[in-house]
Design goal:
Length: 333
Amino acid sequence: ACTLSGCASLRPLPDAASVIVPNRFAYAPEQTGDASVTGLLPADPAFAELRTAARDAPNLGAALARIDAARASARRARADRAPDVTASGNVSAERGSAASQPGNAFASRDQTRFQPQLQASWDLDIFGGLRAGQRAAQARLDAAGADADAVRLALDCDIALALIDYREAAAREALVQRDVDDNGELVRLTRLRARAGVVAEFDVVRAEALARDAEARLAIFAGEKASVVGRLVALTALDANAVLTKLAVAPGTKAPSNLSAGLPSRLLRNRPDVRAAEYRLAAAKQDVASAAAQRFPKLTLTGTLGLLALATGDLFSGDALAATLGAGVSGPL
């Protein structure tokens, strides 16, 4: 039993930074052509305009709002390492009981206290819990930025795919429209030939059937284009008329560049979702370090500087000054 348990012992999992990524994919062809992703984007003026309009899309706005929230958390974590200073002022009036001082009939029963003070405390962070929390907040901010980049990339890809679908539907519609025109001309010529007795009346019927079939196929493209316009409305937050106006611009004739499959595999780490996962892993590690630091004692310096007087005229005198300074150690049992 001891031998089996020894063989079943698990090794520690490798750290993400220790994983060695190969420089190139195995069996990759030689890289020929432009390796820029920009060269793969559609050479279409509508794509540039829709891409710009998508910067106001709701999902991208939510991603940018998460960046602002993460930035505020990072500032809060940074501020937690600084001394905590508070100021307060207190004015109190007190009326005592005459029966409590029967032997002193001339003692004043009314008393007013004026007490402004300044308090400060500072956690020295000996074991690095606050520093780990600050690094975790910064990693979450980086992860939020990578998430926003991923949203932008997804928007660009979805807009490009929708635009390609629209242009493809328009091109196929133009081809079918040409068939409709040709079939209409064929019907006209067949009827003329049937009147002249060159062909049978059945040829006219067959030509008309071909024309109706082409017209039926032409009606499909209106639904396809409307579906693509709906997708672009959801992606860009524009109305349908604005999307149709941008799609009316004729596309360019630039051929896409050849993106070779032999790109270095380390480029995969440039993906926004991969970078966001790495940042979240770093934040989780710092959260573990911050939680571990909570098990150790905490040393705090405290100080108070204030004034205490029974009359406003004595408030700024030297006798009214009161100050305290101390250090405290606390820790969980």
